[in-house]
Structures are given as C-alpha cells and as structure tokens.
Design goal:
The protein is an alpha/beta fold. The strands form eight sheets. The protein has an eight-stranded parallel β-barrel with strand order 2-3-6-7-8-9-10-11, surrounded by four helices. Strand 4 (106-109) and strand 5 form a beta hairpin. InterPro entries: GH, TAT_signal.
C-alpha cells in the first residue's frame, strides 16, 4: 500500500464508513430463496432513489483494546477485513508487566531521563501506518518513577504524580519518538474515580494541571484531547455548586486556556458501556457550550454490556445485534465524530489455540463497512427488538437488519430503484449472522460468507426479497456490481495533508442547554478526500475543511447535493467551497467559489484561516447553482486565483466546504481529485 507523504498527520488516516442518504417504497418480482419461519412477515420498504436526512459525522468507526498483550500484534492483519478508521490503544504507564511497557520506555539514570522504543509499539505503529489507520493513545497514569504506588489503587488508580513537572517532561521526551507517526494523544487521568475518587474541586484542578503539563511537554504535531470521565456525569453535584463534574472540569480548562491560548484542545472523548449515548453526548455538549465548536465529541470506548457482564458476554450474535442498534442511535448525534468499539480482543477477534476466530461483531462491522455513503430511510412497521438501516447510490444498495430479541423474525424487503444490471454483472448477496452463521464461539463453524448469491439480469429496478432474521441475529442484503466501489475504494489526493478542521454549530439556550443548530454536521474523510455536509433545519452550519500542501494548479471536484427549490431566507445562507491560500507568513488570501445560494449580508466567520464571513474574492461557479448541483463537476482554478509566490512557497491552502442555512434537509458530498 502506498505510504502517505510527509508530514504525517492524523487526518490523513481518517477512514469513515459513512451513511447518509436515500429511500422510499417499492414492490415487485420475487427472487425466491425465501426462508421459512414460524413468525409472521413484517414488511420493510426501501426506495434507493430517495434521500433521507441523516447526519454523517459519526460514521468514522474505530476499534480499540488496551495494549497489554502480544496477541494484539498477531491480530493486526485482520484489520484489513474491517478497514476501521482508528485504533484506540490504552497505554498504562504504571503497569510495567504490559507487553507495550517491555522494556520499560522511560529510565532515569544519574538524574537524567532516557527514553527508548520497544518492538511492540514499533510494530503497532508500522502496521497501522501501512494500513492508513489512525492510532489514538490514551495515556494513563505517570511513569513508574513518579507513580505513588501506595495510592495507585481504586478509587485512585492514577493519583497525581509525585513530581508532575518531571513526569510530564519524561512523557514529552518519550512521545517525541513518535513525532513522525500518525498519533492522536489523549490524556486519561479521570478524576471522578482515579485521582481523588470524590467530586471535589481539588481533583478537577489536578486533572487540568496534568492535562496542561502533558500537552505542553508532548507538544503534539497531530491532535491532543481530553478523556472525559467514566461515566460522563451530567448530573448536578452539590459539592460543585449545582454543576456537573464534566461541566466543572471543562470550565477549569476553559479558564486555563484564557491564560494559555496555545493549550491544545482538539477533541473530547466519552468512554462508556451499555448505555444509550444520547444523555452522555448531551452532558458533554452542555459542558463544551458554544465556545468550543471546533472540538468534536469522540466515543473512544464502547461495549453494549455493562462492565462486569461485558467481559462475559462477548463474541455472541446478541452482542453484534445490540452493537448495530447502538451504532444506529450514535449515528444520529450530529457532533459525534468517531465511534469506537472496545474489545478488539476478544470481542471481535478471539484466539483459540493458534486460530483467530472472527466473532459476530467482527463480521457485522465488516458488512457495515461495505454500505454506501448515502443513507436511505426505511419505511414499515417492525416488531420490538428489530431494527434496520439502509444506504445506496448509483453503484450499490444495501440493507442491514438486526434482531435483539430471542425470537426469529421473517422480514419482507420491498426494494425500489436498485442499481440496474451492469452487463449481467449485478449480483444480489445475502449474509446471515446468528448462532450458526459467523459465530464460532456459539457454534463450531467459523466460516463466514454469503448464504445466497444471485446474478441479476434484465432492467427491473424493483426487487422483493424475504429473509428470516434469527433471534438474536442479523441479515445483510446487498445489490450491486461485482467490481470495486468507485467511492468507497477510491484513493485520496496526491497532495500532502497538513491538518483537518472540524466544526459543530453548537448554541446554548437560555437554560444553559446546548444543542447543534439545525442538527447540522460536517465531516471530512481525508483517506478518500471526501467532504460530507448537511443541515436538517432551516438554519445551521455544516462545515469542515482540510489543509494541504503541494496542491495542483487545478483541482477537480465532483459534487452531489440535495438542496431546496426555493431561495433560503436566512441572511447566513451559503453553499460553496472556500480556499485560504497559505504563504510562509500565514494565510494571505481567501477565495470563495459559490453558487446562487449566497447572502452577502453574512456575519458568521470561518473559525480558521482568514476568518471572514465570505472571502477576499468571490467567484460565481454556476456548477454550484441549485439547478445544476444534483450532480456536477467543478474545476477549482487554484493557481489562477492564488497570490504571488504561492506555488513557489509550497502550494499550501486550507480548503473548506460550506453548507450554511441552505434549507431543511440539505445535504452534500464533495469528492476532491
């Protein structure tokens, strides 16, 4: 696989399984192959020719596991089958018996700190880099030389280091060994149960002290974020004056950043198990308020069972079905940028002897990764415990149905506007995941593949298919060409990514509750150079961007969008692409390519680059007009509008994609290159 050009940046490795798009109603010729079931049939209607509003930003899927076992190295090859965006690894510095800590990376001799690599982390880094998978290290505790061993137990597993400055400097020296690698650092000393074990201001001050010291010493080239608390506590605390622990901690960080504006705060994680994430996301959003809109939420660790039972119930069809139900809910949170399933071992890969068994959750994620990026609404009644999601585009249509109950269900799928047969190469495939299919820990069989493959011929755009979903279990139905998918399997730009930019349009109401205006979203897939934007309400800013260097003189862009027929009424209305040209001394000029949705009375500035509400130069690109943008191709003449000396200084620019208050249900996808 081609290696990314220098400098390495986390965003270059972003790999999202995006869903956002199409559906309706249908009926037609039966294909046969129906499964018998004692239960009655429920009908699902899916029209792949229609678009449904569905936030995309959460579709960056990751897997995670504490880096405590050398079996992780043996498992990395199986990441190729899922193609996750991110690997989230815990590095627990007090635990010297972990394989990732052998030999221990930090030593102090004669008062001098010495750091060294070990083969475990070197292998993890190189294997993830080769696969373009981002790694996020959650740093726990302090180096053993500054760990108070007497206090390092529950509820204070990671107490304040005995010498914070020395511990931070040692961590910074060690972390700089990985400056040339795609690393997202996350400080994870959770005060609610790891510093003082009680909800008081002292533990919050310790949390922020450690965060500031570690961030300053590491000086990340990539991203640096804060891990929230287990659980994300959104409940008011009497000891904190009626504020939640998370709100109080973010307030303390907010105050610290006033005196140190360069203190990075690139994301906020949530680490929770067995819960609907909505309440946790609401609590985190309320803590961030409207002044941290460039800080996305990341679900860094998730498992569908509560701690204590999660360890015992892994590797089952029930876990896979519940996980897909939880993922579907998480996908609706507009400012949740990453969703990570914990337990790569053994919940997805279970080693039995020398054999790596792929569990139902592994297989479910493998199928989910095949779904196109345009989400399709599903219509029809479903019994309790059964859910579905669908997506489709001009190349592939797919439906995923899960059943959390203990009773099998027969589902009648009525599919309309499926992709036409492509020279006799279009196939329908059906996959089953249940106790006897793709679940080796519940049944002896470990093979997994389509239970049915039908070659489609003719020109019919409607299909009827009956499937039985075991209880518990999943069924995945896909219609598409045999060849690779031109969007899911495309490469990114040849230009070098410097940094990715994100934005969440959060606003705080009079009662202190923060929401995302218009459920707007924006996310950038830097692996394939794709921007996704949307706004559900009349108003709301869908915005994302990325900075590149070594850009071409002309940059081709493929645009697909759904926009309302009428002119938006908001004075903030804008649909377009903005380029901020960077010279050696900073951003020198901004140019906005826009369609016929542009209100020059705009006041809302871009939160990076030149920060203007429009741009220094406006270019009307008719390809972005509402009448043409259903599917359009636009060539951005970067060189023709660049300031003098831009190409000689590295051809560097921030490219931002903007869909602001364009009308209810607006969505767009931009493919660069």
């Amino acid at each position: 696989m081609q290696r990314p050009p220098e400098p390495y940046d986390l965003a270059w490795y972003t790999r999202r399984r995006v869903l956002a798009a199409t559906v309706g109603i249908g009926a037609a010729a039966a294909l046969g192959g129906c499964h018998a079931s004692a239960s009655s049939s429920d009908a699902l209607q899916v029209d792949f020719g229609r678009t449904a509003f569905f936030p995309l930003v959460k579709s960056k899927i990751g897997v995670g596991r504490a880096l405590d076992s050398d079996k992780i190295l043996d498992s990395l090859r199986y990441l190729d089958e899922i193609r996750p965006a991110l690997y989230d690894g815990e590095l627990r510095f007090p635990d010297t018996d972990w394989d990732s800590m052998k030999p221990y990376p930090i030593e102090v001799r004669d008062g001098q700190v010495q750091v060294r690599r070990n083969s475990f982390l070197a292998t993890v880094q190189s294997e993830l880099l080769r696969r373009r998978i981002e790694v996020m290290y959650q740093l726990e505790g302090a180096p053993k030389q500054w760990e108070d061993a007497a206090k390092a137990k529950a509820p204070r597993k990671f107490p304040r280091p005995t010498d914070l400055r020395a511990a931070a400097d040692a961590m910074g020296t060690w972390a700089k060994l990985y400056d040339g690698h795609p690393v997202s650092w996350c400080m994870w000393n959770e005060p609610s149960h790891n510093l003082t074990g009680s909800p008081d201001l002292a533990s919050i001050r310790q949390m922020v002290d450690i965060y500031e010291a570690y961030a300053g010493a590491i000086g990340p080239k990539g991203l640096f974020g804060m891990a929230s608390f287990v659980p994300v506590d959104a409940h008011p605390r009497r000891q904190l004056g009626g504020r939640s622990y998370l709100e109080t901690a973010v307030d303390a960080l907010r105050k610290r950043r006033r005196s140190d504006p360069d203190l990075p705060f690139d994301y906020l994680t949530m680490n929770n198990y067995g819960e609907d994430l909505s309440d946790f996301a609401d609590g985190a959003r309320n803590a961030l308020g409207g002044d941290f809109n460039t800080v996305p939420l990341i679900q860094a660790q998730f498992g569908v069972f509560r701690p204590g039972e999660w360890e015992k119930k892994g590797g089952t069809a029930l876990e896979a079905a519940r996980s897909m139900a939880a993922l579907e809910k998480a996908l609706r949170i507009p400012d949740l940028q990453t969703f990570t399933f914990s337990g790569w071992l053994p919940h997805m890969i279970a080693f039995k002897g020398g054999t790596a068994l792929r569990t139902p959750l592994f297989n479910a994620l493998k199928l989910y990764a095949r779904m196109p990026d345009r989400r399709t609404p599903v219509r029809g009644g479903l019994p309790d415990g059964v859910g579905a999601m669908a997506s489709g585009d001009e190349h592939r249509s797919s439906v995923l149905v899960w059943n959390e109950s203990g009773e099998s269900r027969t589902i009648q799928l009525e599919l309309a506007d499926v992709p036409p047969a492509d020279g006799g190469r279009t196939e329908l495939k059906v996959y089953h995941i249940d106790q006897r299919h793709g679940s080796p820990l519940e049944h002896s069989g470990s093979d997994f593949g389509p239970s049915e493959t039908v070659r489609l011929r003719g020109h019919s755009r409607k299909l009827s298919k009956t499937v039985t979903v075991a209880g518990p279990g999943l069924v995945y139905v896909e219609v598409g060409a045999v060849s690779q998918h031109p969007v899911l399997d495309r490469d990114g730009l040849s230009a070098t990514l410097v940094r990715k930019h994100t934005y969440a349009d959060r606003v705080t109401g009079p009662k202190g509750t923060t929401t995302v205006r218009g459920n707007a979203y924006g996310c950038y897939d830097a692996v394939r150079a794709i921007a996704y934007l949307g706004a559900e309400g009349d108003e709301g800013t869908g915005l994302c961007g990325a900075e590149y260097r070594d850009l071409p003189q002309t940059l081709d862009t493929d645009v697909r969008a759904e926009l309302p027929d009428h002119q938006p009424a908001s004075s903030e209305a804008l649909f377009g692409i903005r380029v901020d040209y960077v010279l050696g001394h900073g951003v020198a000029k901004s140019v906005l390519w826009h369609g016929d949705i542009l209100d020059r009375r705009r006041t809302k500035p871009l939160p990076w680059g030149r920060r203007g509400a429009t741009a220094d130069e406006l270019v009307h690109a008719r390809e972005l007009d509402r009448a043409r943008v259903g599917h359009a191709r636009l060539a951005l003449a970067l060189g023709a509008h660049a300031p003098s000396g831009w190409a000689r200084s590295g051809a560097r620019a921030i490219i931002s994609f903007w869909m602001d208050s364009t009308g209810p249900g607006s969505q767009a996808r931009f493919l660069l290159g």
